[in-house]
Amino acid sequence: MNDRLVRLFGLLTAMTLIACTAPRGVEEDDEEDNPLPAFVDDCFDGINETLETAAGIPSENRWEAEDVRLCDDGDIDYYRIDIPPQRWVSLRIEVDGDGAGSDDLDLIEVDANDEPVWASETAQPYERLAWYNPTSEPWSRFVRIEGYNGAGSDYDILVRNAAWHEDRDCDDSYPDDTGDDGPCNRIMQFPQSNFDEDGHLVYHQPHYSNLRREVAYLVRWAASEVKREWPDADTLGLFDMSEDDGDTPGRMVGQLRHPEGTHANGNDIDVSFYYNNGSSLAGYACSSHDQYFCTGPADLLDVPKTTLFLARLMESPNLRVIGVDPEVAMLVQDEADDLLDEGKITAASHSELTGYGLAYGDGWPFHHHHLHFSWTWENGYEGRSDETTHPDGCLISPELNAEYAGVTP
């Protein structure tokens, strides 16, 4: 794992308690009492250098600012952006240069104490974060843009603003969506969670955290359903999805993290299991493994919560398959019988869990530390229409095991 990824995962681990508690921005009860500051280019003394002097970025869709400057080595630009009610907003910076070395800029969300909450930190020519405001009032989010190891460069700012919903099925929100270019098929950055009740946390780098809208709706809903059933349930870690253009994660650095053709077009997502050892953001389902499979029972798996989460995902008719380790599958399928008897899952979900909806075996290595959810592939995406042609969604290298398990090598 390179030093940029090590830094990212260290930051994510440190941020966990911050990101899973109360809203980390300011809720605006009256916008007139706290209007958005003007946007400024900060090459003036005392402007845009601290949280107190943060400039404003309008949350209007397609708002852009070009050739913004980090004025000197060590300069930091602070901004506030207000997320409107019931809206998804992404904030992207495009670096003037290749985003590496002397051009390496980072985009970091901070709380009221200037402590990191979430970050987009890579040696790439763009960085991006996204949020969703589920309330009826605007929320302020604060970010800082800074150079990595003293880097500095000009950059552009791009804002995107779109509707977002709490529905399980995106089609319920867009009943007239019938085409491949409709809103439910739009690939969007998965917004970071706001509350512990959300039940999930985007735990991998934002560059690889893009899903089609309808897939994201289902995953968010399933995680919140587990929290509703067990309010003390741990937070799930959300891992690799797709790159922002729908490509397989790792394409942008020339090293695919998954087989060619998987994690493409925002159809697939890797998610941690629920564990019984104190944290479900990342880890292993079993104490004994060989880097490919569990070599003993899945003794670290929280079986009831994992089974309910899988069953909720399987309530969608668009499931293609969910891949897990064989030891996980054995416990989940036994638990499915109990949850059906208790009336916690439907007969249809039970049938998927104990039938073809759950995949495991020799073709699914590396799934002893996460599950792989795959949506039904649709016509129009890279010419694929026959789901039998799609590769399995496993990782391609055991070297990624430590990363998925939340271990910094």
Structural features, described:
The chain has helices spanning 3-19, 170-173, 213-229, 303-313, 326-341, 347-354, 401-404, and strands at residues 26-27, 55-56, 64-69, 76-83, 87-95, 105-110, 116-120, 126-132, 139-147, 154-163, 187-189, 200-202, 210-212, 236-238, 268-271, 319-323, 358-359, 371-375. With 409 residues, the chain is an alpha+beta fold. The protein has 2 domains: 1-162, Jelly Rolls; 165-409, Muramoyl-pentapeptide Carboxypeptidase, domain 2 (2-Layer Sandwich), CATH 3.30.1380. Helix 3 (213-229) packs antiparallel against helix 4 and helix 4 crosses helix 5 (326-341). The N and C termini lie close together (7 Å). The model is unreliable at 5-10, 13-23 and 379-388 (pLDDT under 50).
Overview features:
409 residues, Jelly Rolls, Muramoyl-pentapeptide Carboxypeptidase, domain 2, 2 domains, six-stranded mixed β-sheet, 22% strand
